[in-house]
Amino acid sequence: MSALVIIDVQRDILAVPGAARAVVGERFAKVRERLAELIGRAHAADRPVIFIQHDGPAGHRLETGTRGWELHPDLPRQPGDIVVHKTACDSFHDTALQVVLAERRIGHLVIAGLMTQYCVDTTCRRAVSLGFDVTLVADAHTTADSGTLQVEQIVAHHNALLDGFDAGSATIRVKPLAQVAFT
Q1: pTM above 0.90, yes or no
Q2: Residue 3 vs residues 101, 107, 140, 148, 162: alpha-carbon distances, Å
Q3: Tens digit of pLDDT for each residue in 20-36?
Q4: 41: closest CA among 179, 175, 141, 138?
């Protein structure tokens, strides 16, 4: 059975200063629309929806308990959705995620969210190393420009790099939202 894992879609995850804020905000808005559709599909298929929420330290843009730390209000949450808190890029590291998945007999994760080169990448790789098959939703994860690479380059690079990545019998497949199905 599949579960949807939405990583770090919090109010201030992409808080960037200056003129870049509008560009980042526009990209983030498009991804949030796709995430809302994905969440709706998971709910309609009666599949678990798991929100990963990063608990940042004091002074961090995602400082626990602050407005910036809150899950983004555009995400359609329902009673019964699960929130797993983390403090590292790896959504499994020192969290309840693996237990939550085992209790529900989940073998396949549909992963989307932020930030591509950090928490999304790390969580995908860790999931397959733990034996989960993964579908990374190609057009439902994003990040901010790195200074060296633009968002589009980072996302395209990770989509290409992760597609087919495996560990034993578990594999990552990268698919656009239009091709994602919940089993």
Answers
A1: yes
A2: 8, 8, 15, 34, 19
A3: 555 567 788 899 999 99
A4: 179
- Residue that is written with structure tokens 């209790």 in the block: 103
Residue 57's domain spans which residues?
A: 2-179
CATH number of the domain that residue 61 is part of: 3.40.50.850
Report the alpha-carbon distance of residue 173 to residue 168 in Å, rounded.
Answer: 14
At residue 131, does pLDDT exceed 90?
Answer: yes
Q: Are 57 and 11 in contact (CB under 8 A)?
A: no
Closest C-alpha among 35, 40, 42 to residue 10: 35
| Overall size of the chain counted in residues | 183
Domain count of the fold of the chain: 1
